[in-house]
DNA sequence: GTGTCGGCCGTCTGCCGACAA
DNA sequence: TTGTCGGCAGACGGCCGACAC
């Protein structure tokens, strides 16, 4: 593996190294992934970070790992920088974040803005995602484009030609160009990518079950999307605004194969766990910056959470055993659906190591029988309790000194001591 | 990348996971690489380990990395386990070592055995290594086997056939089978691998400049090698003992391309350095076992050294500025040659972080003009001073309390306090 | 609407000795 | 002794519509 392309979240267009498109990154990362904004305050969970390392190295943290006494279960930090990356060899997306723990004085001076809540990731509107079939990846033929997808995302064909065909140029996460012959033929008629497709499949080492996604993108797309969302759309409305063939992006998402990542031959998994704890502990002790990687498709849960989202979920939401809730999950087609469940317990997930951590403090049972796929423990900020009023007093120890002021959710300008942070 | 095959050094044959051949591993690692024996005492250098991580992540250790006060510049350890591995995707070889720092009492009780000196790696005798040419890796043809190589390593052909040909079966580091058609044809006659060769080249992603090596191996090979080394050999002597076609092994060595390894997307390089220091410091504080990876082709120098070799080089060899020395290097053809140089200085390479470390304490100048390829700093145990008697008193601070007893190199049974270890 | 297949053509793989370094 | 090439034959890549689900 080699150094990846990168993009600072704040400058999606300019800069000589800004070859990584933010919308494409988010499309590859999936609809549930959101990155906190640069400059905002966040909560970092060493426990969740450790979970990602455990999954990536395929090895649980050693039971004999010492407690890092100086490292609290959660660190309140300012997020100084976020860059999006993609592995040069696998196209795996990940983010690099520079965090700086706040000292006591800085924590007192925190003021919140609603934006800090961390809105759901903006998935590009003009895009499609298709899971590759055996025929798509076979050397025998090309790629069968779903009709609606082609009409929505690809530049319109000139139907006066027989057969209608054009050359598509799409750019991947590394800004590499891929050219495809797009043709509309067959009986019944269908959209196909022929010449160029097999080169792409073999270069990216795609297999049946992996997904490919195309985005139509330009700098006005956000504005245009809002306009388009406001009314009914026909394919020629899309076609009218898609006159620049060079604005096509494509990304891949590999199927969840068992053991996607590996234990690096560089450092033992134990040393990696030591590394993240020691780096965080050092940063916490000196209030200095440190760097972490977040791999959205490897990590079971986000472990850098907007502070406001955390405060709201932990200190201003009453939950109790027996309460019903919903939680978002990604579908195979890259959209979201809600699964329902019941809270069966509230307790620290690892009281020996991380006392009073809120990480995965909620034990849950899932309604559907395929529940084995979903985590038996979740964090408060991941779920939507179905009652907005407290049915039972929460048995979970809250450090909240004062109740949440009426008139939710306006807490802009609140001070930290009003929220029980210290 | 995925989990690799592994082999415990002590059980090259048995065990369900012992699919990695020790001789093949050493052949791929190169002639200069030796692994200390299991159970022996070694010196571990965090500084050298950090160097390997810096090379692997392509990023130097951060200047703001804190000093790990409790971590000395060298740790005396017992080596509890060594396993050899190969990366599943790249076939890159590496070793996993389990080290346990010795407490003060254990250090006093150390007794040495001559074997602890760490003999040079035993390269298999019946093997060959060839750097691939453009023709070898082209899809246009097969692999041209050097004549002597084929006669030495491959099973003998039946020359009554026209043309003489056979099927070779060779196993790689992961015990995968590769089949090749071996034929002796052309004008002039030569040995070629045809059918099966291109599959191997594309599966291993070999390019011109990479090397491939074949070993003829069986459990008696060490004994046989000694017999063979004692006299002159002709090809039919080899042929007589190579009657089992399934004993053929093959490995690869990739050319040194710039930026071979990459910054993992799992952990920042800073955290990796923290990790190795914290893991070692924790192990040193508690005298508990810890695990490290040694990648012989990534690391500029070995950082786990047999204790006896270290003692001999540091405490019982007089060196001084101006002294001439030789040092072994690997050639492109996988043999060794000596380069000569002059000692230009003796000092700590990083006095701020690692005071009184002997790691790369010798500044050197190299005789040949291509000297830029070689390290400007080496460690005492890497070089052979050309004078066996001290010409000048060493300016380097020796902690030796008593002089080395006369009658080198017999120090079996010596106690640590006689060698200035404490 | 789209996944897979048989048919068909063209390119490239891959085996051969020639030849030269 | 061995690296590269021209020649050649066959395999496979890859484009097409047919057909079924």
Automatic annotation (TrEMBL), chains A, B:
Domain TF-B3 residue range list: 128-231
Keywords: Auxin signaling pathway, Developmental protein, DNA-binding, Fruit ripening, Nucleus, Transcription, Transcription regulation
Any GO BP annotation: fruit ripening
Gene Ontology molecular functions: DNA binding
Domain of life (superkingdom): Eukaryota
GO cellular component: nucleus
Keyword Plastid: no
Localisation per UniProt entry: Nucleus
Signal sequence interval, chain numbering: none
Family, similarity comment: Belongs to the ARF family.
Quaternary structure, from the entry: Homodimers and heterodimers.
Purpose of the protein: Auxin response factors (ARFs) are transcriptional factors that bind specifically to the DNA sequence 5'-TGTCTC-3' found in the auxin-responsive promoter elements (AuxREs).
Protein name: Auxin response factor
Source species: Salvia divinorum
Gene: ARF6
Span within the parent record: 1 to 422 of 905
């Amino acid at each position: 593996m080699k150094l990846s392309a990168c993009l600072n979240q704040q400058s999606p267009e300019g800069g000589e190294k800004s070859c990584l498109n933010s919308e494409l990154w988010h499309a590859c990362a999936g609809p549930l992934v959101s990155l906190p904004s640069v400059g905002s305050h966040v909560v970092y969970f060493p426990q969740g970070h450790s979970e990602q390392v455990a999954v990536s190295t395929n090895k649980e943290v050693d039971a004999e790992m010492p407690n890092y006494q100086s490292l609290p279960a959660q660190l309140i930090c300012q997020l100084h920088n976020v860059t999006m990356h993609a592995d040069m060899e696998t196209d795996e997306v990940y983010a690099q974040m520079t965090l700086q723990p706040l000292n006591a004085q800085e924590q007192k001076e925190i003021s919140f803005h609603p934006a800090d809540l961390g809105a759901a990731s903006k998935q590009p509107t003009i895009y499609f995602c298709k899971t590759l079939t055996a025929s798509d990846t076979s050397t025998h033929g090309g790629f069968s484009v779903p009709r609606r997808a082609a009409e929505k995302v690809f530049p319109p064909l000139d139907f006066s030609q027989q057969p209608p065909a054009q050359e598509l140029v799409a750019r991947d996460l590394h800004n590499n160009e891929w050219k495809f012959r797009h043709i509309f033929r067959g009986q019944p008629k269908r959209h196909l990518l022929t010449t160029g497709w097999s080169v792409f499949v073999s270069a990216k080492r795609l297999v049946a079950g992996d997904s490919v996604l195309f985005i139509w993108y330009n700098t006005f797309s956000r504005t245009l999307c809002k306009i388009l969302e406001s009314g009914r759309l026909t394919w020629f409305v899309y076609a009218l605004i898609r006159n620049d063939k060079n604005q096509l992006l494509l990304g891949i998402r590999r199927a969840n194969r068992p053991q996607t990542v590996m234990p690096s031959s560089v450092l033992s998994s134990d040393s990696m766990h030591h590394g993240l704890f020691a780096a965080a502990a050092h940063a916490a002790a000196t209030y200095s910056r440190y760097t972490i990687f977040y791999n959205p498709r490897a990590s079971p849960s986000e472990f850098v959470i907007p502070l406001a989202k955390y405060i709201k979920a932990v200190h201003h939401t009453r939950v109790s055993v027996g309460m019903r809730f919903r939680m978002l999950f990604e579908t195979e087609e890259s959209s979201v659906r809600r699964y329902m469940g019941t809270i069966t317990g509230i307790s620290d997930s690892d009281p020996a190591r991380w006392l009073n951590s809120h990480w995965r403090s909620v034990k849950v049972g899932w309604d559907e029988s395929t529940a084995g796929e979903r985590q038996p423990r979740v964090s408060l900020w991941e779920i939507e309790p179905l009652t907005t009023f407290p049915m039972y007093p929460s048995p979970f120890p809250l450090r909240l000194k004062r109740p949440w002021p009426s008139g939710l959710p306006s807490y802009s300008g609140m001070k930290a001591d009003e929220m029980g942070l210290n």
